[in-house]
Amino acid sequence: MWKLLVRTYHLVYLFILRNKIYHLVFWLVYILFVSYLVSPSSSFWDGIFPASSIISLHALVAYFNLYLLIPSFLYHRKYFLYIFSLGLSILLVCFPLAIIVSNFFPNNTFLAANSWTPWFFFANSLYILLTVSLTSFTHLFTEWYRKERINKDLERINIQNELKYLKSQINPHFLFNSLNNLYAMTLKKSDDAPEMVLRLSNILRYVLYETGEAKVPLEKEIDYLKDLLELEKIRIGERVNIELKVIGNTEGILIEPLLFINFVENSFKHGINTVWDAAWVKIYIDALSEENILKFEIENSKPIDNKEDKNERPGGIGLINAQKRLKLLYPNKHKLEIKQTEQTYSVKLILNLS
Length: 354
Hints:
Elements: H1 2-19, H2 21-38, H3 48-74, H4 79-104, H5 109-113, H6 118-188, H7 193-210, E1 216-217, H8 218-236, E2 240-248, E3 254-255, H9 261-272, E4 279-288, E5 293-301, H10 316-329, E6 334-340, E7 344-352
Parallel strand pairs: 2-4
Antiparallel strand pairs: 1-3, 4-5, 5-7, 6-7
Helix pairs in contact: 1-2, 2-3, 3-4, 3-6, 4-6, 6-7, 6-10, 7-8, 9-10
């Protein structure tokens, strides 16, 4: 028996301490307030016991409503049963309230004289309804806030998972192309093979060790693009004019890693690799750090005898991935323009970094 009492006390203590401490504080404050109201002319402490009795009955109806009536009826849209059950429970509690008032408030002749009148039952029903409304609003608001936090956490987790998936599609694709190019150069015993290995090493170091962070310095992303372009220059040779121009102060600017790679790969795949004469690609990065605006532009030549449908936008899954990442990372904070003519293909991206 003693062990059962100790265990019960321990469970109640943990319940109040970990989960419902704010409930206890609420009812204690409520009891003190009612005690002050019912004993204005006598000692304040004389009203504690009757106030505790009254508020205990209020709490009984409140918790009956919160944990039985609302889940059973209100959440299932059984409004008539909910209203009927709540009204009946309030009315039934008014009877013990009348007993408490007639026995513990003899000095208050008005309350004692009217404890069994219709006025008493009506007034206390409204009073209990006020308590029930207050606790119900607090409970429903707390539940709504908790569910909103859960939904936001789930949304954040889903976004992170989707971003990891999109990033995982970028790295293997690039590595596969680079290794193929390196293999071809080693077969030819090209003198540029060591340079290509060095550039590839820099790129892999960045992809493996730097891009795990949520954001990286823009300067590192630019260095990554420079290494990538140097690899392309080695692979393609003199037949393509490749330019990278950076304007503005890039120091201190943070962006998501591998943000521009899809657009660059798209330019080489659909423009440079299919053009064997006078091909070109131009990349501009404009870092207007004072205005928290970053502009990225890339334009490339297209083959004259392009057999692709002119109404079809080239790019494939890489471009789709880039658009998805921008929507997830910069919702309502980016502007992406993709244009193409018979001779050129261009992408303009404006990011609001604020």
